[in-house]
Amino acid sequence: GTYRLTRTVYVWPGIRLIGYGDSRPVFRLAESTPGFQEGAGKYMFFFSGGRGFGPNAGGPPQDGNPGTFYSAMSNIDIEIGPGNPAAVGVRFHVAQHCYLAHMDFRLGSARAGLEDIGNEVEDLHFTGGQYGITTRRSAPGWPILVIDCTFEEQRVAAIGDREAGLTLVRPQFRNVPTAVSIVPGSPEQLWISDARFESITGGAIVVSDEDSARTQINLQNVACKNVPVLASFR
Q1: Which residue(s) pair with 190 in the sheet?
Q2: Cα angle at 27 between 21 and 28, to 5 degrees?
Q3: What residues contact residue 177 under an 8 Å CB cut-off, 6+ apart?
Q4: What values do phi and psi take at 196, rounded to 5?
Q5: What is this structure's pTM?
Q6: What are phi and psi of 18, to 5 degrees?
Q7: At a CB cut-off of 8 Å and minimum separation 6, what does 60 contact?
Q8: Which residues contact 213 (CB under 8 A, 6 or more apart)?
Q9: Distance CA 222, CA 197 (A)
Q10: What is the per-residue pLDDT for 51?
C-alpha cells in the first residue's frame, strides 16, 4: 500500500524495515506537509542511536553513532510530494551491519533522498531533489559503499560529499549538473568504478582541496556521454 507520513518516524537501533507484497510499499510525504518547508533536520525516517536513556532521558532521540548496529530498510519506496523543499527521505548515520537496499526515491523539489549514510547502500534509485545523497563520514569514520545506484535530475548534484570516503561501484548519473560534488575545503578519498556519466552539464566530479595529501580521487572503467568536463577543481 501507500502510507502517508505527517511527521518523522524514528527507527531504533537494530530494527529493520522490510517491505513485502506484489509491489513495494510506498511511504509518502504529501504535498506541503506542515513542518517540511524550511530549516535543517526535516526527515521522514530517522535511524536513531538510542531512545534518550540515561543523561538524555526525556530528550529527543539520539543520532546514530559508532555503536548503532543492524539497522536497515529494504524493498520500500520513498515519495516526497511538492511543496516540501526542506524534506529528506532518510537520515542514516549508522555503523556496522546496517544497510539500505532495493528502494526508489521520488523526490520532486525535496532537499535529498538520504543524509549522512553509513556502512553500505545498494540498488537505490534517486529521481529529482536538490541531491540524491548528501553525506559526511559514517558514524565510525569508515568508508561507505554505494553499489548499483542510479541518479537522475538532481538540481544541485547527485551526491554532495564531505570526507565520506565513498566507494561507488556501478553507479549511473544522468541529467544532473554534477555527479559528485565535494564541499569546499574538504579533502576526500573517492573511488568510482564501472560507472556511466550521461548529460552532465558541469564537472562530473568537483574536487575540493586538491592540494591536500588526503585527497585521493580514483576512477576506473568510466563511460561518458555528453560530459564536457570530467573533473573540475575548486
Answers
A1: 217
A2: 135
A3: 154, 155, 156, 157, 200, 201, 202
A4: -130, 125
A5: 0.95
A6: -130, 125
A7: 52
A8: none
A9: 8
A10: 75
To which residue does cell 504535498 refer?
31
- What residues have CB less than 8 Å from 73, skipping those under 6 apart? 11, 16, 17, 18, 45, 90, 100, 101, 103
Cell triple for 82? 511538492
The DSSP string of 107-169 is: EET-SEEEES--SEEEEEEEEESSEEEEE---TTS--EEEES-EEE--SSEEEEESS--EEEE
Quickly count: other Cβ atoms within 10 Å of residue 139's Cβ.
21
The CA angle 195-208-225, to the nearest 5 degrees, is 30
Query: For residues 69 and 182, what is the distance between their CA atoms, to the nearest angstrom?
Result: 27
Which residue shows C-alpha cell 556502512? 119
Q: Read off φ and ψ for residue 63, nearest 5 degrees.
A: -70, 160
Residue listed under C-alpha cell 501507500: 2
Q: How far apart are CA 89 and CA 112, in angstroms?
A: 7
Reading the block at residue 57, the C-alpha cell is 532521558
Give the pLDDT means over successive 10-residue stretches in the chain (234 positions).
Answer: 95 95 94 95 93 65 89 97 97 94 97 94 98 93 94 98 95 98 94 98 94 94 97 93
CA angle 224-230-233, nearest 5°?
A: 165
Pairwise CA distance, residues 233 & 54, whole Å:
46
Write the DSSP symbol of residue 95.
-
**What amino acid is encoded at 233 in this protein?**
F
How far is residue 232's CA from residue 234's CA, in Å, rounded to a whole number? 7
Amino acid at 36: F
